[in-house]
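Mods, move this if it's the wrong board.
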Amino acid sequence: MKDYLKHINKDFESRVRLGIMSVLLVADYADFSFLKETLQLSDGNLASHLRSLEDAGYVQVEKQFIGRKPNTRYQVTAQGTAAFRNHMDALERLIVNNKSQ
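Not the wrong board. Structure tokens:
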């Protein structure tokens, strides 16, 4: 069991980070408002999780203006894609290989 657990990435343990990464992997990018609405989070909660993912190198941030309004959008990096897929593969192996028979 311990061998399976060592491949679980602690950066993706929370429901919020799993949600953020899942959304960003199926979309080219998502802006802050879309993530907030989709995941039903407060500004502060979403911002702190996005910052952690950014600091880990999993998400990149692009700030721009649309008209005169600021817009922040997020995109998964190649490193983030690889790390998240490895995490999901580890979860799958853990479940499949430890099912009671």
